[in-house]
Amino acid sequence: MTKLIKKKIISRRNKLVKCPTGIKGFDETTEGGLPQNETTLVSGNAGSGKTLFGIDFLIKGAVDYNEPGILMSFEETEDELYKDVASLNMDLAALVSRKKIML
What is the DSSP pairing of strand 69-70 with strand 101-102? Predict the structure, then answer.
């Protein structure tokens, strides 16, 4: 009986539609990315990379999948975000100016 229940749970999990993040390693680890059309909370200590994860996700979505995105930051200023992202060789300013991403 226990084996039957486990099989049903596993089959339901496999049906979860995922949204690829385009972030190398993350999509493989999560078996396809983040749950599509769901809210996902990314939490962690200060400096753990939450904001850069979100920005990377937005940039990959805009560039690779033609998806629009919005980032709301309560700590960093717009200039700080541009500087942080530029240090990773990503051009956030260009995407904002083309209205692919809103800050």
Answer: parallel
Asked whether 85 and 52 are in contact (CB, 8 A), the reply is: yes
**CA 57 to chain CA mean position, Å:** 4
Q: What is the DSSP letter of 51?
A: H
How far apart CA 91 and CA 69 sit, in angstroms, is 15
CA distances (Å), 8 to each of 3, 12, 13, 94, in order?
9, 6, 9, 47
pLDDT in tens, 1-54: 555 555 555 555 557 899 898 888 999 999 999 998 888 888 999 889 888 888
Q: Name all contacts of 86-90 with Cβ < 8 Å and 24+ positions apart.
A: 88/52, 88/56, 90/55, 90/56, 90/59
Amino acid at 27: D
